[in-house]
Amino acid sequence: MADLAGPGIGDYGEIQRILPTDYDPLLTPRETQRAIYAVKGYIEEHLCKELHLSMVQVPLIVEAESGINDFLDRDGSRTPIGFHISNDREQHPINAQVVQAATKWKRMALRQFGFAPGEGLLTDMRAVRKDYFLDHDHSAYVDQWDWEQAITAGDRNLEYWKGTVRKIWKVITGAQRHVQQLFPALKDPRYPDLPSEIEFMHAEQLLDLYPDLPRKQRETAVLQKHPALFVLGIGWPLQDGLPHELRAADYDDWSTEVTAADGRTVHGLNGDILVWNPVTRRRHELMSGGIRVDAEALRRQLTLSGQLAFLEYPYHRAIVSGSIPLSVGGGIGQSRTQMLLLRKAHLGEVSVSVWPKILKEIGAAKNIHVLE
To answer: Would you say the pTM of this structure is higher than 0.85?
Structure first.
């Protein structure tokens, strides 16, 4: 089941083998910092324009009892960092957690800020995920453009979601053109630009194409033919009895029936933006997201995952009662996007985090130097 959990390669010997041996950064460290903020400013401005979003503040810590933290999957393998705030000599203490993502908080925040359908919020989110295996594109420190948009019941369909993904893709490709205008060295013939259009493929179709490959190897294989792909329907068991990847039961809707491009009935109003990274020569995930669960989908997914007890949490009660908006949302990896657009081989070249000595040594031997 390890393949279903997703993050990390899981073996430093493999990282030694797969990291490029011919890497030469196209920008100096100082140029890289300027480029980072050029990309950041462009993406934030244009996401707000395309999706009618407003930038808002986002929490780094939440109360443990709120149930609003993100557990990322449903097998219990990735838990948040918790700590006790003694406050007033234990007279009014708080048990708190560092967020792993702002997924649930964002939906509650739509109500707090009074967003109407078609409007939403964008955050400059920071989080800590302590249970990741740390490799060249997985860090314990997480930075995301977490966004959420209020929708109507009539918007809860695959076409609305695909249209939203296309708008996001327009912003990402626009950011690439923008940063290359500012830093012409990034226009390198070794590294093809992103395609102007993103393609869509359901996880069932991916299984049909590569039935003998593990999940991540399926993605790697298909991206060499389709270098910008949105994989739909992540979370529901496929024809082989296993999901493409485990997903939490209480935010993305991965269980609603939809019609695939080939006409068959499949499941899921969610998925991932994946691209081929020409620097690392590997799959590269940029965003996960989808149409969020309504009351029916929430009950169905909590039942399937054996987590009906979650219905006692305020967030889950709010979905069942309809007191928070229906929504669509996702998390776009900031450092992941920067790494791709700035032609970097390691997340640590565009963000400051902690890395094991072995990974830093492997990188240094290949001319990959992380920020410290």
So the answer is: yes
